[in-house]
Amino acid sequence: MNWNAIAYQKQHSYVWQHGESLLELLNAQPDEDITDLGCGTGQLTEKIAATGAKVIGLDSDRAMIAQAQANYPHIPFQVADATNFELKTPADAIFSNAVLHWVTNAEAAASQIAKSLKPGGRFVAEFGGHGNVKTILNVLSKVTGKALQPWYFPTISEYSTLLESNGLEVVYAMLFDRPTPLGKTGLAGWLAMFGQRFFPELPEQRWQEITEAVEEEAQSLYQADQWVADYRRIRVVAIKPLSKNPTV
Ligand code: BEZ
User: Fold this and answer.
1) Atom 5 (ligand 1): residue with closest C-alpha?
2) In testing the pocket of ligand 1, which one of 148, 151, 191 has its CB within 8 Å of the most ligand atoms?
3) 75 alpha carbon to ligand 1 midpoint, in Å?
4) Residue 217 placed within a domain
5) How many CB atoms lie within 10 A of CB 149?
6) Atom 3 of ligand 1 has which residue's CA nearest to it?
7) What residue's CA is closest to ligand 1, atom 9?
8) How far apart are CA 105 and CA 110, in angstroms?
9) CATH code for position 235
10) What is the mean pLDDT of residues 30-54?
11) Which of the 8 DSSP states describes residue 181?
12) N or C end of the chain: which has fewer CB within 10 A?
């Protein structure tokens, strides 16, 4: 996927700002080997590094990795895909914020994550959960006449079952609404960054018309003088058991 890493970093900082509370759940310790899966421009990777953990940031997008490396030259970053990344040594923890909804082959990602953890290692993740951006998606489908569900937004039971079938024990799972203010560029900026890629055939002028029509129809998301996306997050912590049979 090709991203405009500069625009992402400048205009969509809410992505990693919201991820900061996930770092508390990660609770990184000095010298732990931690992988930040889908690190984007590296802001949360840097916070993990600041704990003294040995972190590597992985992202499938070259532009994101180039920007992350420019931002934080002291941290290793690497282009790698969530469905087939390989680590030099298994990780104490794999952390992932606001990325796994882009990985529609969730089975391959879960399998790779499980394989890449040490026994006793943990997977700590947050991404879009069931019902995420429902209003935006419904309105976009209505306006374009194209039924759109390009992301993976699982329920707790779907995702827990997936992790469990890959040998991980889910010790925490939560699905919650997190209305998210979209900053200065508002809904138009969100659509341009995250939605326009699914309509590559449309001329810019037609995309502008669609954006205006979506804004018109999605007025319920305009609250107290700003656009607020109807985000719904799934958060999970899962452990790779020390023994293959966790009851033993
Ligand atoms: C999200 O963070 O929930 C999200 C961002 C972009 C597209 C879809 C979902």
Assistant:
1) 194
2) 151
3) 26
4) no
5) 9
6) 128
7) 128
8) 9
9) 3.40.50.150
10) 97
11) E
12) C
Structural domain boundaries enclosing 81: 5-132+151-182+231-239
Q: In what order do the strands lie in the sheet with 180-181?
A: 180-181, 226-229, 222-223
Indicate which residue's Cα is closest to atom 6 of ligand 1. Answer: 194
Structural contact between residues 80 and 108, judged by C-beta atoms closer than 8 angstroms: no
Q: Quick check: 66 pLDDT over 50?
A: yes
Ligand 1 binding pocket, CB closer than 6 Å = 98, 101, 128, 132-133, 151, 194, 231
Residue type, 195: G
Q: Is 101 helix (H, G, I), strand (E, B) or coil?
A: helix
Q: Is 120 helix (H, G, I), strand (E, B) or coil?
A: strand
- In the numeric block, the tokens 């420019």 are attached to 70
Q: Which residues contact 212 (CB under 8 A, 6 or more apart)?
A: none
pLDDT band at 197 (very low <50, low <70, confident <90, very high): confident
168 domain residue, yes or no: yes
Would residue 146 count as lying in a domain? no
Overall pTM surpassing 0.90 (yes/no): yes
Please check whether residue 87 is in contact with residue 66, taking contact to mean a CB–CB distance below 8 angstroms: no
Domain count, the chain: 1
d(CA 50, CA 27): 12
